[in-house]
Amino acid sequence: MGDEGGRITFHFCPTCGSTLHWTGSYFPGSTAVAVGAFADREFPGPTVEVYEERRHPWLEKPKGILRSE
User: Fold this and answer.
1) What does the mean pLDDT of the chain come to?
2) Helix (H, G, I), strand (E, B), or coil: what is residue 35?
3) Bridge partners of 8?
4) How many other CB atoms are found less than 10 A from the CB of residue 54?
5) Which of 33, 37, 56, 66 lies in the 20 to 30 Å Cα band around 14?
6) pTM of the model
7) The predicted structure's pLDDT at residue 1
8) Is the CA virtual torsion 28, 30, 36, 42 positive or negative?
């Protein structure tokens, strides 16, 4: 369950167990893909941080990242 009570279904790599993508009842028909699934060094970096309050204290927030509302 998500924070707001919606259902989230995660799909994992059968070989290594990494999260590949997930679907959620809050966005029917959409699939979220884990950025780590892309082996592209030119893949654009994040622009918005979600769950900032849950970030590990040892992880620094990149400059220019907006907070999700």
Assistant:
1) 82
2) helix
3) 24
4) 6
5) 56
6) 0.55
7) 57
8) negative
